[in-house]
Amino acid sequence: MRLRNIKGSKEVIAASPYVVQNPEDYKGKWSELFHNNHPLHIEIGMGKGQFIHTLASENPDINYIGIEMYSSVLYRALEKQTAEEKPNLYFLRFDAKYLADIFAEHEVDRIYLNFSDPWPKDRHAKRRLTSPDFMKVYDQVLCGDGTVEFKTDNQGLFAYSLEAIPEAGWRIDAFTEDLHHSPMAEGNVMTEYEMKFSAMGNPICKLIASR
Ligand code: SAM
Question: What is the pTM of this model?
Answer without folding.
Answer: 0.96
